[in-house]
Amino acid sequence: MEILLDTRIRDWVLLPMVFVVFMTGILRHFLFAMFDSEEKKDKEESEIQANFALARSKTLRENFMYLPERAFKVRKSYFSRPQTGFYEKSMPDNSTANMMNAMQDPSMMMGMMKKNLRTGISSMLLYGWVDSFCSGFILAKIPFSLTQKFKGMLQRGVVLSGLDVSYVSSLSWYFLLMFGMQGLYRFFLGDSDIDDTAIFTMGMGKGGAGAAAGMPGQPGPDFGKLFTSEKESLSIVHYFEGLQKVESHFIDKRYNQLMSEMSKSASEKKRQ
Fold this sequence. Notes:
Layout: H1 7-63, H2 69-80, H3 96-103, H4 106-133, E1 138-141, H5 151-154, E2 167-169, H6 170-180, H7 182-189, H8 198-201, H9 223-235, H10 246-271
Antiparallel strand pairs: 1-2
């Protein structure tokens, strides 16, 4: 069965749903950022400090010969001094083992539960708004044919047995928006942590796959191992002066250039 879609449904239902779902995600992003800003700020600052320290130590290893001996020893002591050196301090550990231990921490589990609860409540409120004000509309038509298996997914809330499968109802459009807005959020917000699909995927799969929906991403670098490796590399560096006899080197170089120029000018005079 073919039907003609009213343009007023597009203007007053389809486009407002896109706008409301998108702006709800943006608002949720900034609200979550207000709650989680302090914790993320402390973690980011410690990781930035660790990365800068590793970069400075590498630069010291590669260019130590251009420093005075005392300056090199002071910098080396700052990084690798026993017990009080920078590499002896506790730095952020993002290894897999540390992440697994952190996930067993009740406070971290409670934080993830609160985040999932906030996401779930906002998603349910948005679904209630769609179900109350936009239910029962046919909003769009997919420009290609589908099998009858997709009818239940694309025509939620509409019971018309003769309706073509390619038509999309308002409730199905809402779910498509929830799953399809992630790329748009990343475009406008950068590396956004908005994940509206987590509330729908929780509990799915085996081996706790659904429970991982609200957990942090891939573990970062293991700074403990990086610090140990850098400390060992720095400890085997033996100082030598790279600028020794640099004056005589430049004098000899300049002398050779002058002699070459003089010989060229003498040969040109002979030719004339």
